[in-house]
Batch of 2 targets.
Target 1
Amino acid sequence: MHNIIGIDNIDDWLKYRSKGIGGSDAACILGRNPHKSNLDLWREKTGRKIPEDISNKDVVKYGKNAEEPLRQLFILDYPQYIVKYSPFNIHCNKELDFIRGTFDAELVEILTEEQGIWECKTSEIRQTSDWQKWHNRIPDNYFCQVLHYFAIDEDYKFCKLKAQLKHYDLDSNEITLTTKHYHLNRDDYLSDIEYLINEEIKFNWYIKNDKEPPLILPVI
């Protein structure tokens, strides 16, 4: 089992969140975050750069406010799962405690008693390439995040990811919402999880030793 840092308020959660490597950091480390490089992340972790405050961006506020209604819809649509939500708990790998994260929810499949993770994503679709990122797959940065959460504890056997995709029709001025559900089994990605853990160990070494890592250009 992993360790859990029980936090009951957002201010303390933000302090602990900045320490270690979180789910959104994994894609940066692998060069799979189109908005931030591994070097940018290292500069933030070592205090050389202040992370950009994106909390007031419309898409971020929308995603935050939409999460609870989407979680409740998941509960209605998937009664075969027990859904546990602790908004400020930080889960840490027992041996590598810098590998940590906060889940959108934890799941227990009632029939099998297997434990899993629930993730919620909202995204605006503005061009064809945006649709392609969600066609029979999830975008690379979100996939890295799921792998990171699997790395926290091997008892998490699956991840259910719910995505709400918003598309604006410029001709009719109407909004189309497309909901997608993805099921990812841990056992299908064991080599990917191992690779990510090794890369995060290396990245943590660069942080602890204050050594600049070689730049990995983000994949756009």
Target 2
Amino acid sequence: MRVHTNTEIIQSRAKWARRIAPLTMLFLIGGLITNFMSMSQPQYFQPTLILLALGFVFATISSHLVNRWVREPRADQVLTTTLKKFGNDFVLFNYTAPLPHVLLTPSRLYAIVVKNQDGQVIVNGRRYSRKFTWNRFFRFFADEGLGSPAAEAENRLDKLEKFLRKNLAEDEIPELKPLIIFTHKNVELIVNNSDIPVMRTNELKAYLREQEKSRAISATQRQKLIQLLGGQWEEVKE
């Protein structure tokens, strides 16, 4: 398999995560100090609210950046490891296209949404929910929200299609398909009636082998797609 990864954006976002973390602590500690001071000096009540609000905002941003760009294995690393046994007619693009992860196969392009939540995730059509646990409650800032994976997948597929239509002729655009992958080793998926394929990491290879039984993309078409989606970023052969 071939991999194109924009390592510059990974390094840049990781730096921002490390810069924001100390600011988060500074705001929260400052809010705690002014809170004690406000007990005897009421004028410190408003600064307390401001500092704690800033601490909450920065904690949320920091958690998002750390989960996505610092904590390993990152989404790009998990996908690369999972798909490494495939041949060079499979090409993975990480952070080089208008969406984070795109997989080019012999027959189509996949717009991939990666989720790293653990525990029980229940899928009913477009609705995704997680079972409440006290562990999740105490990891509030460290745990990235599930969001709406179905809407996210559709949005990414739409972005990919618009990008391709802007840069390629109609007959050069292959079939496009969304995928939702849960990468955490302790995730338990219960899927009911999902229009979008959703699976755990260890199910991805079997799914692709079942799907990829034709070579609908020509060599010329394939080369154009690689140049368009890969840019000048680092390429690794697995």
